[in-house]
# Entry
Amino acid sequence: MQPTEREELVERIRSALRMIVDPEMGSNVVDLGLIYDIAVQDGGIVRVTMTTTIKACPATAFLKEAVQNCVWYVPGVEYAEVRLTYEPPWTPEMMREASARY
# Structure
């Protein structure tokens, strides 16, 4: 897979992930800054690294599953894996950083 193809797939995934709304925050996971990384490997293998607003977030399982299912449905994705991390911990400033990046 060429670098431009990877970048296009990452953008399609990021766009699709905007449909997933954190039920407590009322905004999508991308704009909240909850998606830390989207890595695309050869063969359509995608690994998403994400977080939640707090470690004990009651929506953690819902959000992780929603992200994985959403990524699976993006054309070009053959396998999707979601990794949850709390390093670095999420802060409200990440919303501004995410909106500046995307």
